[in-house]
Amino acid sequence: NAGVTQTPKFRVLKTGQSMTLLCAQDMNHEYMYWYRQDPGMGLRLIHYSVGEGTTAKGEVPDGYNVSRLKKQNFLLGLESAAPSQTSVYFCASSQRPRAPVANTGELFFGEGSRLTVL
Amino acid sequence: AQTVTQSQPEMSVQEAETVTLSCTYDTSENNYYLFWYKQPPSRQMILVIRQEAYKQQNATENRFSVNFQKAAKSFSLKISDSQLGDTAMYFCAFTAGWETSGSRLTFGEGTQLTVNP
What we know:
The complex is a heterodimer of chains A (about 120) and B (about 120). Chain A has strands at about 5, 10-15, 20-25, 30-35, 45-50, 55, 65, 75-80, 85-95, 110, 115. Chain A contains no helices and eleven strands. In chain A, the strands form two sheets. In chain A, strands 2, 4, 5, 6, 9, 10 and 11 form a seven-stranded mixed β-sheet that branches. Chain A has a four-stranded antiparallel β-sheet with strand order 1-3-8-7, with no helix packed on it. Chain B is about 5% helix and about 50% strand. Chain B has one helix at about 100, and strands at about 5, 10-15, 20, 25, 35-40, 45-50, 60, 65-70, 75-80, 90-95, 105, 110-115. In chain B, the strands form three sheets. In chain B, strands 2, 5, 6, 10, 11 and 12 form a six-stranded mixed β-sheet that branches. In chain B, strands 3-9-8-7 form a four-stranded antiparallel β-sheet, with no helix packed on it. The longest helix of chain B is centred in the last third of the chain and has 4 residues, at about 100. The interface of A and B includes residues 35, 49, 88 and 103 of A.
C-alpha cells in the first residue's frame, strides 16, 4: 500500500534555483493538497486541487506554482527558490464526498519533503 | 476565515498518567469536522481522532478521547495511560465546506508532548 508518495524526500537548493516536488497517490482521490510545516506555525496550505486540471490558492501561495495534469499526481514548483522557502513540505489527498458514503474529511499525508534553500 | 489555536507549545507527562491537550477554534460555520493528528519523530502525520460538529457525543478511540464544547469552540484531547510511543507533536485541525471545495484543513501551531518513563 503506497498511499501518498512524495519525491524527493530531501533537497538542498541555492537561492534562485528552481525545483519541482512530485506527489503521487494511488487511492483514486479527487482532492490533493500541498502544505508547508514550519516550527511554531503548524501546517499551512500552499495550494490545493479539487480535480484533474484544476488548482486553487491556499493560505501561503506566493513563490509556488502547481499543476494537476493527471488525477494521481500533484506537482509543486519553486521557480526561484528563496531562503524563506526552507521548510518541510507535505502532500495530502482526500476523497470527494459521494452519498451514501459519509465523507469524514480525513486527509492522507505523504512522509514529507525537507527542502533547504541556502 | 477559520483559525485554530493551541496555547501549549510543550507538555510532558509521566508514563501511565493522563494528559490533556487544549485546542480552541474560531468559525462561523455550523457543520464542520475537528481532528487531532499525531506527528512522531518519523514526521508521518497520523490521524488520532475526529469529531463531527453535529454529534453531541464526544469521540473516543481506545486511550484517546476528546472533550468537544461547541458553544465554547473548544476541542481538547485526553490521553489516558500515556505510553512512551505517545511522544510526538500533536496538531489540532479543522475543516468545513468540504463538499464543494475539498477538505482543506486549518491546523493549530502544535503541542510537543513528551512522555517520560
